[in-house]
Amino acid sequence: MTAKLAAILTEFNRGSCYHLSDLARHAELPMSTAHRLVYELTDREWLTREPDGTFRHGPALERLTYDVPPEPTLQERGPHVVADLVEVLHRTVRLGVLDEMEISYIEKSPGYTPVTSFGPAARLPVHATALGKALLAFAPAETVRLATSGCLAAHTRRTLTRTDQLLQALHTVRHNGFATNHGELTINRRAIAVPVLDANGLAYAAVEVEVETISPVAVEEVLPALRLAAHALNRELHPHAHHRGARQHEQPPPIEQSASATG
């Protein structure tokens, strides 16, 4: 029996899909035997029957042949990181990504409410949020140019509406390794954010926590947890990648200043 099953499965090393009659002929099995064994393999997900009647390798066989398990996604792991940070810091936490010059984000507040989902309605401006500045500060030069070339809307009197102001803020973020929002989107909302960096030092996500005030004490209270969460998330998403270490923000790539920038 084992030899017959092996004869059928071995055929899929030579091609991607077969009709039942082809499998019977190539495996040198009677049609009745091939029919019984193939459908037993299909029931156990070793094979999959296509709408046209052919058979191809199924998910059980694919899992067996994976060299490494599939890496998790940000959509899968991000909510867990947000929930863990809320548990530790007892503050509202957000995780955001850059999406067409806006921030797509998820968030959770302290309590029993679940983490929100990424969605079209969950959008924040890049220039007026800690999330956005953390992402832009470690973005490719072309992304920074696009984000600073248009009109920077004023949401409050504290919003950075000039290109030179925003570029200087991004330099500060790169030097410090974290970004702040001091009432720039909503006058009474303040936050601190850190980037989630890939092996090349570019941010593909950022994590933000709300604070009562932007001060050295507030930064010291939340920054270690934020950095640890960002590092852990990157390690979960890219377990086989080379990481440059937690101190990579000390030597950031340069940001091109515009001709009008005054610093």
Q: Would you mind describing this structure in some detail?
A:
The chain has 263 residues and is of the alpha+beta class. Helix content is 40%, strand content 17%. The protein is built from 9 helices and 9 strands. The chain has helices spanning 2-10, 20-26, 31-43, 59-65, 74-89, 130-137, 141-149, 163-176, 216-237; strands at residues 17-18, 47-49, 55-57, 93-99, 102-108, 123-125, 179-182, 190-197, 203-211. Strands 6-5-4-9-8-7 form a 6-stranded antiparallel β-sheet, sandwiched between helices. The chain has a 3-stranded antiparallel β-sheet with strand order 1-3-2. The chain is elongated. Residues 242-252 and 258-263 have low confidence and may be disordered.
Low-confidence stretches: 242-252, 258-263
Largest sheet, order of strands side by side?
A: 6-5-4-9-8-7
Output mean pLDDT: 82
Q: Encode the helix/strand succession as letters.
A: HEHHEEHHEEEHHHEEEH
According to CATH, the fold-level topology of the largest domain is Beta-Lactamase
Rg of Cα set: 26 Å
Distance between the termini: 77 Å
Pfam families: HTH_IclR, IclR_C
Keywords: DNA-binding, Transcription, Transcription regulation
Domain IclR-ED: 60-239
Region (Disordered): 240-263
